Amino acid sequence: MAHRVTLIPGDGIGPELAEATRRVLDATGIGFDWEVQEAGEACIAEYGTPLPDHVLDSIRRNRIALKGPITTPVGTGFRSVNVALRQTLNLYANLRPARSIEGVESRYQDVDLVIVRENTEDLYAGIEHMVGPDAAESIKIITRAASERIARFAFEYAVANQRRKVTAVHKANIMKLSDGLFLEACRTVAADYDGRIEFEDRIVDNMCMQLVQKPDLYDVMVLPNLYGDIVSDLCAGLVGGLGVAPGANIGEDGAVFEPVHGSAPKYAGQNRANPTAMILSGALMLRHLGYADVAARLELAVREVIAEGRTVTYDLGGDAGTSQFADAIVERLAATTAPAAGS
What we know:
CATH architecture of the largest domain: 3-Layer(aba) Sandwich
Shape: globular
CATH superfamily of the largest domain: Isopropylmalate Dehydrogenase
Number of strands: 12
Distance between the termini: 14 Å
Strand content: 15-25%
């Protein structure tokens, strides 16, 4: 049975990354029926929005989507398509693994972290307004329900993936009510996993320092929306940058998988961009669909091609194009034994 998946190529380098990822995923032996939907800047002239309703309807219908990067203007213009997708579809959990890859230049080795970020509230709820001509106010929303829900997601992920510890990250020493509520909710949920998963908490600024000093002490981290956005990029920096950082946005009724880097419009159409982050996001999609063994096989193929260093993009020290890099991964997949469907 083919899985019907909404494919959103995105802006800039997105279409090239999406095509490379589609070829690689098709090469895994899992059947996909790709429903291509356009979103982003090019849609504004025709639909008046970068995120037309029919794109949302496609994701609701298929319950799974793979998305390339989409441009988000700074300071002006439309709000983030990514934020709109998460809030409209209630994709409450943002999942960002950060794992070292041999052949990717970094100051660290053997980093293996998972960031679980609450996706629907906090300062990213978008409740802000001007207070007079020269001041603006943004309201931070933290609820017990959303905090317990994201904490439980983190603990369930830890159990399912044989992780050892969950760390709640907060600023409850200063924001005693909002972040205090988040921390209290995490502690409540942690009690249900006592004896199975270790639990601790860290203040967010101290957490950033400790991740730079000793990332090996940490495993799964759960954070409110804003801190999660910042710390997940910090962790990506520990393993070589956003170009190798996959991402997933997961809710009860659907999931969207995407690389977390930008659309890099100046490189569009040049066959230069590194598709690793989007391909690894595709591997997260395979795990979500129940194909853990196939996902592991794909991740290994990516890691082996990068470690070998012969057919990699310029940012990884090579001269291969986007499509040639994908070709190398497809060849590596073909050289391995395909597991049984549904494994």
